[in-house]
Amino acid sequence: MSRVPVVIVVLRSWIFRLALLGFFGIVLAAVPMYNNHILPAFAVHNEQKELRERLQEIFTARARSLASGSYEGLESYYDTTVTSGLFALNHEIGRVKYVREWLKERQIILTGSKMDLAIIDTGNENGRRWASVSQHLILNYRHQGEPEKTVNQMGVRTIHWLELVKDNGQWLITRDWYWDPFEADDLDPDVAPGTARCKAAVSSPPPGKYNRQAAVKYAERYSGVRLGTGDGRYNQAYRDFTGLGGDCANFASQVLSDKNAGAIPRDWAWNYHNGEGSQAWAQAWALVRYLLDSGLAVRIMRGNFEEVTRATPTYPQGAISVLHPGDIIAYEEKDEIGHVAVVVGRDSAGYILVNSHTADRARVPWDMGWDRQTIYWLLQIVY
């Protein structure tokens, strides 16, 4: 009986009433803060997670399409109501058709693929989402007639800048910009017919001081592709010229001249210093001219696919067959040399393989990604 008055006294206390009001005031004051800050933060986090999952889904589907040769269903990942979205879809369809046609002409069978995706960054600008994405794609293959257990591997890396919009709860691509190693100008690829296998014994490279073995090791390590000894990175000692027109000549120059690679001495016309490269160092056409004019290389042949693979008395297996690891192939389109690649070896059928930057290739057949009109310059290093 003595406890009841005590409780009544406490409940009627003005001090308790003020404390109670203060407690509820804190709670009520906290509710708007929770709504204005914490809930939006959760929403942004969930949206980013959703976008990343969608990007993984999109790139997985695209890799599967490229490997299978079927582009059915790709349209569901693009906003085709805008010109840039339709262009991005058609580009993807074009590259699938190109790879399918190239494989058919070269009598090559894809036997597997592996895709590694890194979402570098995402953001929001003017109501649209953007994403920066790095994709490594490794393709397993063999030539027709080879045992099924035969496995060759080629790899490519593509760096994408995408813009996306949400429509009916799904993220759709409205823009996709990247350097494409399987570039297709249209939806009707024009691949030169024939193949370039070479099972004949390969002659020794010309004698000289050029360290071909070290050059190839360098090219494999710094191709930018996660294949073999490559870890997906460029050599950080050199500037990346991708955003300044392309990095292929810069990479080839490194392979030829770095002290840990080919070790060909540089000079005033062909040099790299403090993040800057000379014209002959950094531009494909200028590098080719320099190599020929300086006597560091000789041109075995200049011609289209049919011409450089045709058997002749001088080149019974075709001119392409005399190239050795460490040599250079330049690619001319519309009377302009716009790309160079480094020969790194041969596959199980003797097909010449190359590494390059912009776009990043590792052990890719030398003509893959090019069409019937492409002119090839076959350069043999003779230093």
Quick overview of this protein structure:
The chain is α+β, with helices and mostly antiparallel strands. The chain folds into 2 domains: 42-177, Nuclear Transport Factor 2, Chain: A, CATH 3.10.450.240; 212-381, no CATH class. Helices cover 33% and strands 27% of the residues.
Give an overview of the whole structure:
It contains eight helices and twelve strands. The protein is of the alpha+beta class. It has two domains: 136 residues, Nuclear Transport Factor 2, Chain: A, CATH 3.10.450.240; 170 residues, no CATH class. Strands 1, 2, 3, 4, 7, 8, 9, 10, 11 and 12 form a ten-stranded antiparallel sheet that branches. A hairpin with a 2-residue loop joins strand 1 and strand 2. Helix 2 runs parallel beside helix 3 and helix 4 packs across helix 5. The radius of gyration is 29 Å and the shape is globular. The N terminus is likely disordered.
